[in-house]
Fold these 2 entries.
Entry 1:
Amino acid sequence: MSARRALITGITGQDGSHLADLLLDKGYEVHGMVRRSSTEKFERIEHLRDRITLHQGDLLDQRSLVDTLRAARPDEIYNLAAMSFVAVSWIQPTLTAEFTGVGVTRLLEAMREVCPQARFYQASSSEMFGKVRQVPQNEATPFYPRSPYGVAKAYGHFITVNYRESYDLHATSGILFNHEGTRRALEFVTRKITWHAAALKLGMAKELRLGNLDAERDWGYAPDYVEAMWRMLQQDHAEDYVIATGKAHSVRDCVEIAFDHAGLELDRHVVIDDSFKRPAEVDHLIGDYSKARETLGWEPTTSFEEMIRLMVDADYKQLKA
Ligand code: NAP
Ligand code: F7E
């Protein structure tokens, strides 16, 4: 029997690279869509370049999406590509809407035309809950997004649901809470903290400038979360799922765990910088993943404390080298 074929948009990102690792381990033929850039940014997939097939495409360009699907002929499509940094979504609100919102419709339209029997995963986000209407948040919690990113993700979520109901597509929306790890980009708060803990320890940085230390998130471990994406597409019926740990921590907790591990004191090194505060904040997120546990048999494997410590260790090793 020939290998199952998967297409990952956003394969150069944190989740795309972990998902590619997972699907290759499971015996899939893995295809990735990448956008053209004047310099290649393939660090996260360098270790598997000769085991995957890359296609040039952009969520803004319908032709490239149709051609990518024709070439890849996927059984499963994971739409992970997006402008994913919340803070930048206020700086580029309409571009965020195009990439993160309307881009989903473009890909669904291409799928309808080329491979309507394929299974589709949309990377939805806990940012859609924003100013939360219910604690903890589950699949039935109403959305109240607080950023142009959250608004665009809510559009992407509902268009996925709508195409499932309108055209009988196997289209799933995974509502994932924050997830991190050693491949997280440096601009996100956990990696910014772990990188600075390592750099301060090595004498390579003098301070850590942060915005709101009181914001609370339900932070999980990225390799666990890509396993949940795959499990969602193995179900006979497409539905939506919340993926979370059920535990919330503040940004301050994150600094304390990282600094404690590195033998540093928060008060000596952290500087509050208002330029990192957002026009509208999401104060507290905590997810209820009961449906995923019961239907997918999914559980998180790595605690927040373990994850932050392993991120500090990885940053320390990398900076020292
Ligand atoms: P990430 O590291 O920022 O990766 C985003 C990917 O999207 C990159 O490969 C990027 O390519 C690609 N991309 C951006 N714009 C594109 C465009 N116009 N056309 C084609 N590709 C484009 O994000 P991540 O953390 O892996 O997250 C994956 C997805 O899950 C995103 O949709 C994100 O919004 C969503 N999500 C993430 C979290 C989280 O905590 N990580 C939680 C919930 C939902 P380049 O390398 O060329 O920039
Ligand atoms: O911020 C606060 C900030 O940028 C977390 C994305 O993957 O998860 C991510 O979005 C919190 C916020 O992630 C700094 O105000 C304080 O309250 O790490 P973050 P995010 O905005 O939660 C969701 C689920 C996604 O879908 C997104 O794609 O930390 N914070 N000081 C800071 N944040 C940053 N980045 N930098 C600071 O200096």
Entry 2:
Amino acid sequence: MHEVAVIPGDGIGPEITEAAQRVVEAAGVAIRWHEVQAGEAARATSGEALPGAALATIRRLRVALKAPLLAGRRTGGITVTNEGGPRRYPSINSALRRELGLFVNVRPVRGFATLSGAYAAMDVIIFREITEDIYIGEEREPEPGCAEAVKRITRAATERLARFACEYALGRGRRLITAVHKANVLHLTDGLFLETVRRVVEARPPLEFSEEAVDAACYRLVKEPQRFDVLACPNQYGDILSDLAAGLVGSLGLAPGANLGAEAAMFEPVHGAAPDIAGRGIANPVAMVLSAVLLLEHLGEGAAAARIRRAVEAVLARGRVLTPDLGGSATTDELTAALCAALQSV
Ligand code: NAI
Ligand code: MG
């Protein structure tokens, strides 16, 4: 029996979490889920968006499935007071990732037959650095009408990301690692990122290195997605490129992710809490289900993970049970039921 922490999250979070748990159970994997409250649910009961108990449970179990959390301007930043705090973070997601020592966000984006049209063959893995860049939250307003933010890139964090991407790529038969940057304008910060990734990748044959300015990378991803294999990105470009890539294959509701570090692993979709459709039972559960697939692979349940992936591919290719974001009219519950049924025949 595996023991896994689960954060049901905000907005559509609880709906897609329940769906993913149902699919994992239908695949026959025994998991004891330890529910952890964070976000608005935790704020309502304990007054704290990220209670120390939530962090302690995830640290103890070392693996978590996480639904999206509201992190907009309305909720403001967050202060973690427990365990040697206070430490201030710009959002609850950055707080969770930093407090758990997670440093890389792996986001595989694959096209689906039929459903993804011209992007059916797209198959990229985005590696997003998640400890620094402009998201460190060091903003200030030196005078009214003027605001500044610090963008921090370090060689150490970039090397860690690049080495991780290399190992991951080699282990999966990938060949090409493209560094995404804007070094032509940000000579010091993105220049350091670019040259660090270049050095790490070039020392690891048979891996090949290439580079692309972030604007050109967006264009090429749309026009020639097959040119890309593995993308190594600083925090912000990785954030933006992963939503773009998800949109190209059909929906944000299709793209899963893994936040990894030395001490813990936390799996979550690329998308957010989708407050515009929350509570209506029409959220696409696939990104959360595929995040659970990445979690199962991490737990050594590769066979069950592969079966769930095949079930997702079969249901999406058939095209009969699709949620509204994919052009259909099915509910979350109906798509989840179709996935569970498909598991019996894949
Ligand atoms: P979002 O990703 O929540 O939504 C963008 C659009 O995609 C919306 O139209 C939404 O309905 C749609 N969408 C997203 N996931 C979907 C799904 N599974 N099925 C069907 N449609 C889906 O981004 P937005 O609106 O910018 O953010 C909403 C909230 O979520 C904000 O508070 C934001 O800070 C937070 N957020 C949290 C993340 C996390 O917890 N990792 C990541 C991104 C945003
Ligand atoms: Mg994002």
